[in-house]
User: Which sequence fits this backbone?
DNA sequence: TAAAAAAGAATGAACGTTCACTTTTTAATA
DNA sequence: TATTAAAAAGTGAACGTTCATTCTTTTTTA
């Protein structure tokens, strides 16, 4: 019990340190030695938890992606109407990107670079299935435009990544009204 | 004359090799030796054209950013109507991202990671001024929603980066009709 | 032939990973 | 319950490799 708890805590420290350092310096400019130092651990200890540096970043990616989708769909129920469901999920996604910005920033970097393995990337994509199902239902009901999921995602979700980045860089402070505006724009662009 | 021409060609080769390799491996996983090899040049020669590896990537970023905005605004005239101007610029941006996808991919990586210097990043942003001016004019004329440039950019331009990425990864093949759909969604989301 | 450009070899620093060892935890024994 | 042996977790130093950059020599240019 105590052993396991300690292990989980150490692994968590390693995950947090990786996110922090990769956000600030990029994956390849983040040496194992620095991750170890920030997590108060010996470099060798990292290899008790992860096979390699690559395995570390793959696992952190999947862990964060899982946290992201868990957050996004937490208040969503499958029996909601499409309109209500989309609003709830969209706003949870917006919330996550703005409040858990370290994790969101990390995901953005992974999604836009070749740092994680292709298999981990594909694994991460699967987590979005509930949103794709929701869209399918909306299209079946004649509520949502009959266009590709990629277009729907581009119109509604991808703008949030850009806003998160500008906020993170201090260029723009996002307020409640911006979220509401952005949500209306997102919904308008996919509703029939 | 011959000397200068040769230099320009070598520098171009270096720029192209950098884009190619950074796209596939990321900046820090791209050694100078590989860039040199791909450009048919000695590693030492790179230091005749660039101060350092960092200077190289900064310069490539600014060069590509310049090519991007030159392309985006090539057919745009300041005396166009806001409606016409926006359509032309938006579609040129879409064109660039889909046709010059290597360059667009490189920009996406630079814009989402800490690989380039802050000063180069700020320098790159300035190139978008004509689009911001166009939006300002549209807002003055009561045609475009009176919201922050960052929101306008998020709604209209940032979806294109996502579509470019999916196309680049072979997940989605973008056709003419998608561009038209996306343009309509973009315009609808910012027009008053 | 002098100067500029380019090349390849050399260098020192930094990296990921491993190794030999120590400390801590667990389990067994009496 | 106290003692101790086995196992697990953790460590710092060291290894071999790779990297960006520099140095020395060769080639090209004018």
Assistant:
């Amino acid at each position: 019990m105590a052993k396991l708890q300690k292990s989980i805590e150490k692994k968590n420290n390693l995950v947090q340190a990786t996110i922090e350092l990769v956000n600030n310096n990029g994956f390849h400019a983040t040496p194992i030695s620095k991750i170890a130092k920030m997590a108060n651990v010996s470099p060798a200890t990292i290899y008790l938890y992860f096979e390699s540096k690559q395995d570390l970043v793959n696992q952190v990616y999947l862990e964060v992606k899982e946290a992201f989708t868990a957050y996004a769909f937490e208040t969503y129920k499958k029996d909601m109407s499409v309109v209500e469901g989309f609003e709830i999920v969209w706003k949870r996604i917006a919330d996550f990107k703005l409040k858990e910005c370290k994790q969101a920033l990390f995901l953005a970097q992974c999604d836009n670079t070749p740092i994680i393995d292709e298999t981990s990337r594909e694994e991460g994509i699967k987590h979005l299935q509930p949103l794709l199902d929701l869209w399918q239902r909306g299209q079946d009901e004649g509520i949502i435009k009959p266009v590709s999921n990629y277009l729907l995602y581009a119109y509604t979700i991808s703008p949030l990544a850009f806003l998160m980045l500008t906020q993170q860089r201090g260029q723009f402070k996002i307020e409640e009204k911006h979220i509401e505006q952005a949500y209306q724009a997102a919904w308008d662009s996919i509703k029939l």
Notes: Chain A has a mean pLDDT of 95.
